[in-house]
Here is the input.
Amino acid sequence: MGIQPTNVVVMMTITDYTADLERKKDLVAVTKSFLYAINRQVMI
Here is the structure.
């Protein structure tokens, strides 16, 4: 019985970690497009 709660915790941690990675990817994409937009403004 002692193993099951640990498995649940591990699964939840992995899920949180994956969601966090997805958020970071979104943040990187937003930052890149933001910097790209600034660069375009500077070029013009």
About this structure: The first helix runs from residue 3 to 43. Residues 18 and 24 are 10 Å apart (CA to CA).
